[in-house]
What we know:
Blueprint: E1 9-13, H1 14-19, H2 21-29, E2 33-38, E3 41-46, H3 64-67, H4 72-75
Parallel strand pairs: 1-2
Antiparallel strand pairs: 2-3
Amino acid sequence: MGKIMGMKNVTMPIGKARSDLCRVVKKVQTGVRVTLTSHGRPQAVIMPIGAESKAWRVDKPDDPSRYGDLQSPVMEDWQ
Length: 79
């Protein structure tokens, strides 16, 4: 069986990505995940469609004890 390779990550300033957006999109289409930064701090991620992680919310939890009480904090009064 083949080895599963992780997605390649690239970091670049927003200004550079803006000036060469076509090249950035072509990189993303090949499977590269691009993190855009502003003043050295991550601000956004561009990744291929379908590469997003599994949804964290489900209709019915498979094991409610894993998730704890999700309703009580939401139903508290706002004072």
